[in-house]
Amino acid sequence: xxxxxxxxxxxxxxxxxxxxxxxxxxxxxxxxxxxxxxxxxxxxxxxxxxxxxxxxxxxxxxxxxxxxxxxxxxxxxxxxxxxxxxxxxxxxxxxxxxxxxxxxxxxxxxxxxxxxxxxxxxxxxxxxxxxxxxxxxxxxxxxxxxxxxxxxxxxxxxxxxxxxxxxxx
Length: 169
What we know:
Number of helices: 2
Number of domains: 1
Radius of gyration: 50 Å
Structural class: mainly alpha
Number of strands: 0
Largest sheet: none
Oligomer: single chain
């Protein structure tokens, strides 16, 4: 019967150890469950913050695109206005330059017809016209004067347009 006492003690010790192990396991599982809950809450919070960040970036990108489009339309309207005003101004100046060149050519023809012997139109040399103008103030010279007047007005028009565009920035 001595053996039965030892077996009971061993059995009791094993039972106590198993009970203590089971208790430790329950405690550790409870701690793990609490930590899991904590990390899950933190994960959900990070997930929500990330979704908010993505939404904010999307909103900011959309606002920036809208602002860029509005600015582009404003600039386009401004440039179109400048181009229209410059075009109208250029048309008036071209008309005036053509009239001035035509008047200059008319005055030269009148002067050369009035006094053909003195060479009044000699400074405007060119090929003689079909009428046999000996002074050389022919149609080519008149055309040159017209082309120079137009090109000068156009070059100044481009310069004025560019200055207005640069000034509007």
